Amino acid sequence: MHKNRWAAWDRLMRALHLYTGLFLVPWMMVYAVSAFMLNHSTWFVDPPPTGPKWDPVREVEFPIDDKFPQEPDQQARAILKHLDLAGAYRITGNTAGSPMVIYRSCANGLYQIVWNRQPSRLVVQRYGPPSFYMLVNNLHYQHGYDLDGVAYRTWAIIVDVVTISTVVWIISGIYLWARRPRKRRLGGVCLAAGLLLFVGLVVALCE
Questions:
Q1: Residue 112's beta-bridge partner residues?
Q2: Could you tell me the pTM of the whole model?
Q3: What are the residue boundaries of the structural domains of the chain, listed by start?
Q4: Structure-derived torsion over alpha carbons of residues 26, 30, 32, 34, reported in degrees to the nearest 10
């Protein structure tokens, strides 16, 4: 009976370890590859210039009426909808001042929209050129439930699944190691060495 109980736990841990890992392969590859590229950015991109390179996309008149919202956040949403660029964004600088600057982020690039209130005109620029480095970098930092759209919410859910699954992999990995008597000594040395190195580096980096 005792062995049967442990056998059930063994099967559960192996299943969690295996199937969550297989399902999350694309996301784990994104975070692994992007972290490596961020750590070695000079291998993949030219040294950064003195300032961002913004390429002009278009300039358009932006007529407003009495129905135009007064809150900066709602104004930014209306501007992005007008430009067919609805999605994740942030407003920089003085939101009540002129011009208003909106950054519209997406996985394959970054838009800068400048709204000059008098006269009402929109200037759209894009940070470029697009690259694989930019794509994986933006995917690496994509997060949060505060963005509208099914894709953003689904990605946020997957990020939660990735983080929870990582904890599950750690717990299940330690469990599977502990269930292998012949591996306990060497595994214990590796675990202790990793913990000591981690604590030492955290202490050093906090000084």
A1: 103, 125
A2: 0.72
A3: 2-44+149-205, 54-130
A4: 170
Q: 93 and 103 in contact (C-beta within 8 Å)?
A: no
C-alpha 21, offset from chain centre: 19
| 36 vs 39: CA distance, rounded Å | 5
CB 19 within 8 A of CB 165: no
Helices (H), 53-205: 72-82, 132-140, 150-178, 184-205
- The pLDDT-based confidence of 95 (bands split at 50, 70, 90) is low
Q: Of 38, 34, 113, nearest to 75 (Cα)?
A: 113
CB 31 within 8 A of CB 134: no
Q: Does residue 48 register a pLDDT over 80?
A: no
Amino acid identity for residue 106 in this structure? C
- Token couple for 6: 């442990």
What is the C-alpha to C-alpha distance for residues 28 and 36, in angstroms, rounded to an integer? 12
Interhelix angle 132-140/25-39, nearest 10 degrees: 110
pLDDT for res 87: 81
Averaged pLDDT, 143-169: 86
